[in-house]
Amino acid sequence: MSAPLFDAESLRMGEPARPDVAAPAVSEVPDPSSRPRRQIPEPAPLSGHGPATVLAMCNQKGGVGKTTSTINLGAALAEYGRRVLLVDFDPQGALSVGLGVQPHELDTTIYNLIMERRTTLDDVVLRTAIEGLDLLPSNIDLSAAEVQLVSEVGREQTLGRVLAPALADYDYVLVDCQPSLGLLTVNALACAHGVLIPLECEYFSLRGVALLMDTIEKVQDRLNPDLEITGILATMYDPRTLHTREVMARVVEAFGDLVFDTVINRTVRFPETTVAGEPITKWASRSQGAEAYRALAREVIAR
């Protein structure tokens, strides 16, 4: 087993402040999101496409901005001339809904792709309204795959096998994992080159990272020795609150340069984009949220 990626004790926040003890002033806690940022130039245009880098967007805690980040990072990468395939690997189908697809109306999804040999990528892949951005949709049918794959030989490599024919046509494949550490998530990690971890700047999200890191280490040791952590993305950041700034400071302290310079702030724009079925880079192209995901795309390309 490889050496631990970090000391889980370093993420402990200690006991919450007691009501009868004065809390420190917000100004006493520096804003980690304002730390010096690395200068990252605009990505150079590509002369061709592929082979794709596969990134698993992973966090076993729900509601951390994972699906939102998958959609908007994919759209921002497409803006920079990259061909991107988004893989909805969550039975809830939130990624599909966020791109204007109604999962319950689909006859063929990624479930059919991984469970039926006669189904091909071309049968399932959907073009989106964003040039260069394609989607492998999902719906509730995928929940059955977790049970059905248990008896399969090489069950952890199923997703990798069906995605292999697409790698030559894309520059990035982003897999939106379900909020658990089950067999579907292990499949995504087993075929990925890197893991991008959206992390809500909130205490319980921070404590759950240790479980995720343990799973990543096991996958590295047993299934995919080339798997790396591409980076940790701070989401739902609100610099006005002391708690958010403390959590962010702990993340930077524990993970250092693994933490992206880009920080995704809370904004009402993101729920609006879900209703609209469009990425924020198209729905509100000049908003701070759109610029943040463009900055994240530049960092991902640079890494």
From TrEMBL:
SUPFAM superfamilies: P-loop containing nucleoside triphosphate hydrolases. Gene3D superfamilies: P-loop containing nucleotide triphosphate hydrolases. Residues 53-229 form the AAA domain. It comes from the Bacteria. Pfam families: AAA_31. InterPro entries: AAA_dom, DNA_Partitioning_ATPase, P-loop_NTPase. Residues 1-50 are annotated as: Disordered. Transmembrane segments: none annotated. Residues 9-18 have a biased composition (Basic and acidic residues). May play a role in septum formation. Belongs to the ParA family. This is Chromosome partitioning protein. It comes from Actinomycetospora corticicola.
